[in-house]
Structures are given as C-alpha cells and as structure tokens.
Design a protein that fits this description.
CATH superfamily of the largest domain: FAD/NAD(P)-binding domain
CATH topology of the largest domain: FAD/NAD(P)-binding domain
Number of strands: 20
Strand content: 25-35%
Number of helices: 13
C-alpha cells in the first residue's frame, strides 16, 4: 500500500529542508528522504565543518606568530585529534538542531535511499530495513553533488581523500598533495600547512582560483607561497602510484618537463558531479543536461510537471546560499508568484586567510561582455584598520560601468566577506558607486576602506 503526501523532498540539503519545514508548517503533509547526512552536506561534511577546522588552523597560525604582537608563547602543539573532535562536537549540535526543526515543523524525516518509480511515485529502501512506497502531488529533487575523481591512471587505486575524509583525519600528514586549486584545495591546503604539514598544490589550469581575475589569483598565490605551499599550475597529472596515507608518487608534466612528486597523502579537490545516478529519473521522465545536471527552467521546474529540482544538482551555483534562494523561488511560485533564477546577483567567499569576498562581475567578465569599465583598486595596507591589526595583505577592487553603476567587487583582505556584503547590498539597491564613496562609515573599520576605494575611481 502506498502512502500519499502533499510533498516529497529527496535530500535534506539547504533548499529542500527549508521548503519541507515551510510547507509542513502550513499544514501540508511532507516527508524528506535522506540517505545519510541529516541537514545535507553543509553542516556535515562541507561548509561548516571545513570552516571549523580552518579556524583551528588560523588559531595555530596566530599563536605561532604571537611574538609579533608582543605576546610570548614558549611552546605550541597541534593536536589533530582535538581539532577533529571540536569539529565533530559542532556537527552533533547541528544535527540535533535539525532534528528539532523537523519535529517542530511537522515534516517527517525518512532515512533511506529514494528512487523514482514514476512521475509521482517514490520507493524508499529504509536504512534500518524495510521499504516504503510513497506518492505525492509535488516532488522536489535536492540531490546535491559528490567529489569527482579524475581519470588519472592509478589515482582511484591510491584511495585518495576527498573533503569528506580529510576532515576526519586525526593525524597530521607528513606531505599533503592536493589535486585542484579551487575553493577546497586552497582553503584546506592553507589550513594543513598551518597545522604543520608540507603541502603541494597541483592545478591543470593556468592559475589558481581560476574564475578570478589574474591580479586576484596572483596575489593569493603569492600569499600562499609565502607560507611555504608549493604550487604547480598548468600541469598534466600523468599517473599515481602507491596508497594515500602511506606513500604515493605522482608523475606530472608541463610544456617543459616531466617529474615525480612524493607525498604521504592525496586530497582530490578537482570538481564535483551531480548525484543523479540510481535515482530513477528516467522512470519519471526527468531529463538531464549534457553535464549530467537535472534540466530545469528558470522556475526550477523539471521536464516532468509536478517535479522540481533545487541546488547544485539543478545547476545552481554550488553555494548553500544559492540553494536557499532556490527554496524561496519554489516557495513563492507555489503560492502564485513568478520568481526565477534569471539575473541573480550571487556573492561568495573563499575562506583562505586573508579571505576573498566577491560579488558581481570580474574585470575579465565585464570586458568580455563589452562593458566600458573603470577599475579602482586599494591596497589593504592603506586601510587604517590594518595598521591596528597588522593584517595588511591583499586589496580591494571595484568594477564600475556606465552611469556610475557598480558591476562587481572583490576584496582579498581581512574580513573580505563582511565588507563585500555592504557592496552587494548597494548593487541590489541599484546605487551608484558615489553613494558608497560619500557614505559615512565607522572608523576604524575595514569597511571604511570603501570610501578610499571609490574615491579612486577614474573619471569617466
């Protein structure tokens, strides 16, 4: 006998859980099916756990350099078991919080593997045994993504770590070799260097942080190399021998040479693939894009009426806050609205130290679109707050278009994400850059640097 619901959500990640809690709170009968991670990857294996351990690494770095602040520390040790346990304590608290929210909202949580058996039918193989057959008026696919292991000879056999395994590593690697210099590779590479490991980054592209302007990428590389991280860009990874956690040898090549790098551990941070296999999408008539994402329109509706997709599996930007906005779109449209994903202004942060906060277009993107741009830059050393903290690395950068419009902003510097948010809101409001230039901003803060930055915009 099948059980009927108003809404079935497959996956308990950000957008899906908020939709479930909201509609259940409105009196609808809702069930969320989750295979493993209650609340999705963000509180369990991705965003929050990684930032938790990164903060521990930043603390170690601060203690190691405390003499510069006039504070003497006779000795310092890094206890990776305690680092990991601190992270686990946070995750346990987050899971408890999610369970409370499921209970208080009235949304049911079913732990098991879901598979579509028709346009409005879902079969659930329960984790604790047994099976349930469900039907629903509405189905939301909130499947997420998983780390991709590149097809390099010997790499899969070497049992490399992904972001999931490294955040459970309770012993410091002697030499951590990272494949990929995007968010995960850069953040965790710096963290493990600060914990005390040797770190080598391999990137097949021409620069680290590939989506950023060359000046941002170059400054970030300079800062990481100054901490002792070895970075190779523009390389081809030929093969891997050995086993991660014991000893590995990686053969790499560029246009000029071929050589081998020995390490104790490998972290793969080279992209992600959608979790769309084995879900039965074809049984429900749900189409995929050439990249394997679920094909959706700008309202996040799939090719099958009554089925929506949300978050990364639907091609939305790979950020928790993007998935949350996907929830708002579906919620409001179900209530008769007409919201879409078109022309969303999507901010993001890279949690290196210093962090990078960015919103809008890069200089490269703006010029490629044919915009007549003006660019302003301000070294963080010119922001008076940096004189008090000693955190003087990096710069602010603004992209100004015609009619004094703000097209984009980047800040590689202390509190970059927080300062970026102020510019982001100004862009949402359609304010000209002069509004920030002439605003009264509290002194001495890093945000105060915005006055100087926008005062340096070249004349049109």
């Amino acid at each position: 006998m099948s059980e009927h619901y108003d809404l079935i959500v497959i996956g308990s990640g950000e957008g899906g859980k908020y939709l479930a809690w909201t509609l259940a709170g409105q009196g609808q009968k809702v069930v969320v099916v989750e295979r493993r991670w209650i609340g999705g990857s963000c509180p369990n294996t991705n965003c929050l756990p990684s930032k938790n351990e990164i903060w521990s690494a930043e603390t170690a770095h601060s203690v190691r350099h405390s003499a510069q602040m006039g504070i003497g520390v006779e000795s310092m040790t890094v206890d990776m078991r305690r680092v990991v346990e601190r992270k686990r304590e946070m995750v346990r608290g987050l899971i408890d919080m999610h369970l409370d929210l499921f209970r208080s909202s009235g949304a049911e949580l079913a732990m098991g593997h879901a598979q579509l058996t028709g346009p409005r039918r879902v079969r659930v193989e329960l984790n604790d045994g047994g099976r349930r057959d469900l039907t629903a008026e509405k189905i939301v696919l909130n499947l997420g993504t998983s780390a991709e292991i590149p097809a390099v000879p010997g790499l899969a056999e070497a049992m490399p770590m992904t972001h999931v395994e490294i955040l459970e590593l309770d012993a410091l690697p002697r030499h951590l070799l990272i494949i990929g210099a995007g968010y995960v590779g850069l953040e965790l590479g710096q963290a493990y260097r600060r914990f005390g490991a040797e770190v080598t980054l391999l990137e097949t592209g021409s620069q680290i942080a590939s989506r950023e302007d060359a000046d941002v990428s170059g400054e970030l590389r300079r800062l990481l190399e100054a901490e002792g991280i070895i970075i190779h860009t523009g390389v081809n990874i030929r093969s891997v021998r050995g086993r991660s956690g014991d000893a590995v040898e990686v053969s790499v090549a560029n246009e000029d040479a071929e050589w081998s790098i020995g390490a104790s551990h490998i972290l793969v941070a080279a992209g992600r693939r959608p979790n769309t296999r084995g879900i039965g999408l074809e049984e429900a008539g749900v189409a995929l894009t050439p990249r394997g994402m679920i094909a959706v329109d700008e309202r996040l509706e799939t090719t099958t009426p009554g089925i929506w997709a949300i978050g990364e599996c639907a091609g939305s930007p790979a950020f928790t806050h993007a998935s949350l906005d996907d929830f708002r779109i579906i919620r409001d449209n179900l209530a008769g609205g007409n919201r879409s994903t078109r022309d969303r202004l999507m901010p993001y942060c890279l949690f290196t130290d210093p962090p990078l906060g960015r919103t809008g277009l890069t200089e490269t993107e703006a010029k490629a679109l044919g915009h007549d741009v003006r660019v302003a830059k301000l070294p963080m050393a010119r922001v008076l707050r940096s004189r008090t903290t000693g955190r003087r690395d990096g710069f602010m950068k603004a992209i100004i278009g015609p009619d004094d419009r703000l097209l984009g902003f980047a800040m590689l510097g202390a509190e970059g994400g927080e300062v970026m948010a102020a510019v982001h809101v100004a862009m949402l409001a359609g304010l000209p850059y002069t509004a920030i230039r002439d605003a009264i901003i509290a002194h001495p803060t890093n945000a105060e640097g915005l006055n100087a930055l926008f005062s340096a915009v070249p004349r049109a």
